[in-house]
């Protein structure tokens, strides 16, 4: 790996290249390097939408070298939660950072006018972006790709849409073809810095140290991806296959988590999307799996046979957030919503849960047509949801702007916090499988299903009997192990391909010699550092409550109480070494 950081100061309009072998030797890459760089560059008290917030991008020692090590970690202070923000994206970004010769990029300061960064190896050009400010994510991509900018090499384009410009706290940053730094508001941070887009590329390569050993390792990983069946599900129907599976297990959130199964799930299953709407499948750079499913959305724009066809990415989380959770059973309607979300640049999960909160709040009488400008909200009414998105896109103050701040803020503003399906202020992912999923959302460092895979443990518990203590220990072990996977920035869909033996061989070949004990210490240290950063931002483990509504519904594992969560959380904090009542000054 390059062991170089590109530091960009937007305020000064300057950049420099920092060689830091010690950092990469110690912290490997990805999430671990990003955590260290956040400690170095970002005051935990920084205003998330101020110039003193930073954006860190980091890749790992396997990036662009081994298959499916495709992701880039973004770290920043989140405007959505007010504490550590972390999000991962695929596409071509990791490859392009490699080709440019950097293992990490730090962006600090803020520009006074809309700006586009064009990074070509060591040359960083600050270009005015006023002419594309206001453009959708798709139009921005089209202009940058076809224009005079960014001609050389294998380029990646990361940009924001109007939602990021308006600083919606859950605006995402879009990478290449419908890949995203989706969660926790990186798009708003870019918007606050007047950074419309970043293009990066170059032509640099590093020679492999031991070609014979490398070839053997590469072939093992490649063969496992394409032949073992470990990743077939992702290639075939993609994660959308989980709609039917989770519905069967009664773990599919429906109508703002009122119910854990959707009576019309078959109509929006991965099978239906695959058979009827699938138009194309693509892959992140250097992934032979290709799990990105794009549907064709053909829409009439003029009475006289005027049609346009857009390709819209879909997967399980998107279908849950804008489908079952809003009680929408028409795939075309879901695609129309997703297309709008894609162009504006919102995080689809946070948006979907905020819309489901709004519907519940309307039905419960907490808001009325006075707030909604005359709109009557009902579950299943896709046209009204589309109209809400249009009004949010207009950015006028009031109810529709409040929706851009997420379900928890809205729940507090309109006195129905119990209806907001948020955990640590982050909107819930699509799992209503039981107490381990909810515990994962609550205690996970990103408040995401990706932290400790509690949803998978709930599903496994159908066939297993182990104590609560051991269940939580498994989750804590998973959280620590994911520090390693996310420092290598392997796509988590390949987590079963990258066995401990393969990782160990790869590290010895491409990073440095290290023992199993050393790796365990490394994982625990990075996880603890992240929690410490969160604590310094003001986050408190004791503040984490189950949304009130969830104590009244039936999950795939039955009813879940706050006490169930508290017991699990206490075990988790002990296992990861964070006292539940701690304060860090
Ligand atoms: S499995 Fe999918 S998300 Fe993962 S690297 Fe491949 S194409 Fe990208």
Word description of this protein:
The chain is 40% helix and 16% strand. The chain has 23 helices and 19 strands. The relative contact order is 0.12. The mean pLDDT is 95.
Question: Can you summarize this structure?
Answer:
40% of the residues lie in helices and 16% in strands. The longest helix has 22 residues, at 516-537.
Number of domains: 3
Q: Report the CATH topology name of the largest domain.
A: Aldehyde Ferredoxin Oxidoreductase,  A, domain 1
Largest sheet: 6 strands, mixed
How much helix is in the residues?
40-55%
In the CATH hierarchy, what is the class of the largest domain?
Alpha Beta
CATH-assigned homologous superfamily of the largest domain: Aldehyde ferredoxin oxidoreductase, N-terminal domain
How would the blueprint of this fold be written?
Elements: E1 4-9, E2 14-19, H1 21-27, H2 30-41, E3 55-58, E4 72-77, E5 84-89, H3 93-100, E6 104-108, E7 115-120, E8 123-128, H4 137-146, E9 156-159, H5 162-165, E10 173-175, E11 179-181, H6 186-192, E12 195-201, H7 211-227, H8 232-235, H9 242-248, H10 270-277, E13 278-282, E14 292-302, E15 306-314, H11 316-322, H12 331-344, H13 348-363, H14 369-372, H15 382-394, H16 399-403, H17 407-413, E16 422-423, E17 426-427, H18 435-443, H19 454-460, H20 468-488, H21 500-510, H22 516-537, E18 554-555, E19 558-559, H23 562-576
Parallel strand pairs: 1-6, 7-12
Antiparallel strand pairs: 1-2, 3-4, 3-6, 4-5, 7-8, 9-10, 9-12, 10-11, 13-14, 14-15, 16-17, 18-19
Helix pairs in contact: 2-20, 2-22, 7-21, 11-13, 12-15, 13-17, 18-19, 18-23, 20-22, 20-23
């Amino acid at each position: 790996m390059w062991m170089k950081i590109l530091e960009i100061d937007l305020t000064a309009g300057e950049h420099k290249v920092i060689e830091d072998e010690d950092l990469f030797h110690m912290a490997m890459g990805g999430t671990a390097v990003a955590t260290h760089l956040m400690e170095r560059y970002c005051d935990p008290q920084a205003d998330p939408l101020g110039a003193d917030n930073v954006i860190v991008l980091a890749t790992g020692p396997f990036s662009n070298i081994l298959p499916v090590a495709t992701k880039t970690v973004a770290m920043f202070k989140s405007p959505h939660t007010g504490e550590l923000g972390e999000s991962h994206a695929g596409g071509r970004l990791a490859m392009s950072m490699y080709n440019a010769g950097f293992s990490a990029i730090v962006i600090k300061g803020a520009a006074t006018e809309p700006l586009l960064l064009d990074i070509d190896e060591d040359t960083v050009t600050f270009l005015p972006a006023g002419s594309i400010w206001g453009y959708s994510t798709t139009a921005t991509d089209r202009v940058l790709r076809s224009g005079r900018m960014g001609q050389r090499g294998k380029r990646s384009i990361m940009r924001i849409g109007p939602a990021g410009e308006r600083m919606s706290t859950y605006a995402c940053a879009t990478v290449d073809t419908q890949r995203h730094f989706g969660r926790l508001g990186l798009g708003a941070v870019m918007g606050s810095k007047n950074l419309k887009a970043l293009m990066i590329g170059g032509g640099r390569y590093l020679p492999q140290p031991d070609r014979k050993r490398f070839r053997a390792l590469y072939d093992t990983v490649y063969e496992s991806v394409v032949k073992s069946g470990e990743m077939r599900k992702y290639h075939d129907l993609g994660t959308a296959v989980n709609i039917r599976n989770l519905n069967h297990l009664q773990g599919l959130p429906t109508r703002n988590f009122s119910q854990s199964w959707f009576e019309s799930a078959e109509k929006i299953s991965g099978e239906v999307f695959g058979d009827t709407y699938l138009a194309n499948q693509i892959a992140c750079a250097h992934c032979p799996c290709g799990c990105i499913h794009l549907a064709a959305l053909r829409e009439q724009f003029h009475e006289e046979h005027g049609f346009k066809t857009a390709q819209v990415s879909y997967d399980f989380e998107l279908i849950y957030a804008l489908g079952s959770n809003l009680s929408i059973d028409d795939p075309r309607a879901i695609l129309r919503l997703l297309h709008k979300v894609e162009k504006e640049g919102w995080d689809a999960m946070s948006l979907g849960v905020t819309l489901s909160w709004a519907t519940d709040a309307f039905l419960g009488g907490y808001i009325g047509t006075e707030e909604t400008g005359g709109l009557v909200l009902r579950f299943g009414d896709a046209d009204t949801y589309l109209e809400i998105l249009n009004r949010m896109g207009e950015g006028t103050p009031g109810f529709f702007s409040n929706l851009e701040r997420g379900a928890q803020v809205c729940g507090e503003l309109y006195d129905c916090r119990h209806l907001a399906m948020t955990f640590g202020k982050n909107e819930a992912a699509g799992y209503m499988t039981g107490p381990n999923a909810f515990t994962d959302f609550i205690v996970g460092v990103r408040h995401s299903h990706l932290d400790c895979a509690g949803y998978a443990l709930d599903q496994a518990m159908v066939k297993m009997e182990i104590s609560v203590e051991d269940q939580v220990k498994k989750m804590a072990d998973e959280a620590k192990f994911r520090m390693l996977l996310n420092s290598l920035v392997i796509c988590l869909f390949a987590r079963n391909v990258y066995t401990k033996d393969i990782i160990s061989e790869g590290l010895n070949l491409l990073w440095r010699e290290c023992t199993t004990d050393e790796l365990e210490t490394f994982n625990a240290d990075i996880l603890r550092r992240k929690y410490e950063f969160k604590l310094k931002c003001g986050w408190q483990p004791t503040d984490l409550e189950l949304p009130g509504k969830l104590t009244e519904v039936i999950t795939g594992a039955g009813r879940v109480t706050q006490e169930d969560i508290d017991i699990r959380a206490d075990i988790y904090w002990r296992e990861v070494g964070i006292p539940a009542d701690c304060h860090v000054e």
